[in-house]
Protein: PQQ-dependent sugar dehydrogenase
Amino acid sequence: MDRKWSALALAWLLASDGVAAASPEAGETVALAGQGSAARAPGIHVEQVVQDGLTSPTAIASPRDGSGRMFVIEREGRIRVLDRDGKLLPEPYYSRDVTTADTEQGLLGLAFDPAFRENGRLYIAYSGAAEGERHGLVLRRLQASDPSANRFGGKDELLMRVKGLVANHNGGDIRFGPDGMLYWSIGAGTGEPQDHPHATATDNLLGKILRIDVRDGARGAKNRCGETGRAAYAIPDGNPFAGQRGQCGEIWLHGLRNPWRFSVDADGAVWIGDVGKDREEVSVWRDGMPRDLGYPRCQGSHDYPSTGATDCPARTGTAGPVFEYAGREKGRCAVTGGIVYRGGNVALKGAYVFSDSCSSELLVGRMSSTGRLEVASLTSGVAPGYGTIASFGEDEENELWFVNHLSGGVYRVR
Structure:
């Protein structure tokens, strides 16, 4: 493959199912991810909405309640609100004590119930600080008495706790899928890959993506491995290990190291950015594929420890990545999983948009006929640095937003 994408090749990459992207200027090129510097793409604009007032934001989400608001979480334990005009409100929506002893700990995940406008429910995932919550990830349900309010008031209940996470590699993202289930990414924990045989074991919740039913009156299998609080959750019958003695019924996918950010597309496909030790990878899981994504036996398509072979998924029968790159090359250090774009910009329609939290590129990919993700590297407007672009979210119009953990900036892609 040529080292540079021509203008016509870029137009194909950024087009959606035959809809042409805006015509680039003659001679304009965009570097293939990992092969040169990023360039601006025609018809794609990044706008900085918030410059000051946020400290270490880790995620952004919309309540999709007609208010036009966006909610941002800060690592130190606060939820902040941006009004319809993108103005950051001065008072936090909600705050709590969390553990931030490691830079990868803190308030990590935020998800709104699909019926938030009616039921006022939102969920947070964080590193526990209180007695009985330490050394693990905690999932809580916030039940707002007034869903339209910009300050939280209502019930605050423990839903679930996963033990055994004491420092970094926590994962911590939470998302609702089109099936109404809540998905939660759990990292394998601190240490080297050889310390993580539990990532592929199905009697342990570390190194997994979980799927649980948080609806009122939900019923399911009883083989729960998570510690529960007063707010109950159920194991959906469709989970692969539901009802199996000695297995964790919450598990949906396994064999992951640090699934820091993932998303569930409208078709049920799970897109995962898994931060590796030696290689960064993007995987897509669809119904019928192996549920084991290979770690720690594989990192990307490579053995761990490396033998030079690149047929690890085929040989192990695990699901391989659709895109991977070596860590600590081209200014990259950690993949930030993104979202399949469903907004109104035809140049991005249907593309998977993600990033790397050191190089700060806007990485735009489409699946090729060979089952690989063809990726272009575009400039995001964020300077490279350690721990920059941390997470992507969608607003009510399905337009993409992202947060800069390093500077506190909030950006919108149009």
In short: The domain at 4-413 is CATH 2.120.10.30 (Neuraminidase). The chain is about 5% helix and 35% strand. The chain has one domain: 4-413. The mean pLDDT is 91.
